[in-house]
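pasting for ref
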Amino acid sequence: MDNSRGMARMTTPSVAWLVGASSGIGQALAFALAEAGWQVAISARRTEPLQAMQTRHPSLTPYPLDVTDAHSLHAAAAAITRELGEIDLCVLNAGDYIPMPLDAFDPALFRKLCEVNYLGMVNGLDAILPLMLARGRGQVLLTASIAGYRGLPKSAPYSASKAAVISLAESLHLELKARGVLLRVVNPGFVRSPLTDKNDFKMPFLMEAEDAAQAIMRDLPRQNFEIAFPKRFAYLMKLLRLLPYWLYFKLTKGAA
């Protein structure tokens, strides 16, 4: 099956839906897409930041929702299609991060981050995939994290939820590509945002959100499965993923 024409349309500015757009990478990417000529539907729980973004760029249209509420995602997808047109690009970027050292072990925190970071992605896919599969084209980006490559000390709920997103994308990629839909995973390193402001340690290769958005924009025309940045940090973490456990734990012992 030749999907080259459909794949080409996915990078021609049309309608994009960005879930998790109120701050950080999501906000910066929304503005970058709008500047590139896309009509961008922006979604998040909080209405005020979305409205403030719309005042800055007329190509941004707010559709507030909660990713833990599957119905709100379906309703937003239908409204966007009706009001803006068919969605060619969907970026599922909503996520949360809460550090958890061992002494603060809390199953409720695991459930919370799983509901937002992983099941929120599942809910988003359930809303957008039927629309894209029906016309045989579309592109979906799932924002995971380099922290999903291997479990990191003091962030068990976060690392586990992001590893689940990576595995989800890997599992669905080939089946969707055969039917004209390109599913990709975005794995950022440390990007300055309200989430990383919670960290009390030095973050290597810390990026600004605008630089992260430009890294995604540069890779958008390509069909590679993964978009990871910054490159040096991604390569370093991938190398750690290849190490045997005894050596990996020895190298990361200082972070525990």
